[in-house]
Write a structure and sequence with these properties.
With about 120 residues, this protein is mostly helical. The protein contains 4 helices and no strands. The longest helix has about 40 residues. The two termini are about 25 Å apart. About 25% of the residues are buried.
Length: about 120
Amino acid sequence: MATQVTADERRGSSFLRTAIALQTLTIFLQAVSAGLLLTSSYGETLHGVGARVMYGASMLYVLAAVLAWKPGGGSPRPIWHASGFLVLASVQVVLGIAHVPSVHLPLGVLMFGLSVLALTRR
């Protein structure tokens, strides 16, 4: 039984790391699409689709954090981190829809930095 828990913990941790990596990648791609937004006609569409994908990746991060916590009964800290990130992603989406680039852009940079930090800590 202890071997199964260890395997489950490793699998959950691997899924969590993958979810954080996916989130980090989608945020980086949002920065790229933001540049295209300024220079091409299809940039707005790409950035809008990317926003949905990034938000989905943030929700996946929360799910992965819960699944990684549940088998081993460890600290729920990753769940709090993932939930906080989902809140930031929600604020980011609202700011983007409202066209408030003075806050939207710096928040995007902050989110990328926090996501890289979370990735390096896992």
